[in-house]
Amino acid sequence: MKDSDLRLDGNAAAGLLSEIFVAEMTAALATCAGCGKTSALGAAQLYARAPGTVLRCGSCGAILLCVVRLREGLLVDVSGMRRIRMPSRAGGDAAA
Asked: What is the rounded CA–CA span in Å between residue 50 and residue 27?
């Protein structure tokens, strides 16, 4: 089997992406790329008086997430997180 047989256009991920990005994000568990601590995004420290909105790790203060509103839409940087574990839509345990 060739690699091209396994590869789809990114638009094929539309269903999965819409499932991920409509979750209640304050309940999502984020793992800090700086210190490795995992906690709910709702427990992070919010800095909203900058040119953008910044969420910092409650443990080490590293930037977890930065959102800047532009005319064209939103610019979202999540490079400060190793992973995000989202709650399931059904309200049960968080999805892996």
From this structure: 24
Q: Where are the domains of the chain?
A: 3-85
Residue with tokens 């209640």: 24
- Entry field: residues in the chain: 96
Amino acid at position 56, single letter: R
Q: Which residue in this structure is represented by tokens 């819409």?
A: 18
Q: Count other Cβ atoms within 10 Å, centred on residue 37.
A: 13
Indicate the pTM of the whole model. 0.77
In three-state form (DSSP H/G/I as H, E/B as E, the rest C), the secondary structure along 47-82 is ECCCCCEEEECCCCCCEEEEEEEECCEEEEECCCEE
- Give the H or E element holding residue 38: strand 38-40
Over residues 39-57, the pLDDT tens digits come to: 999 999 999 887 899 999 9
Record the tokens describing residue 29, joined without a space: 């568990």
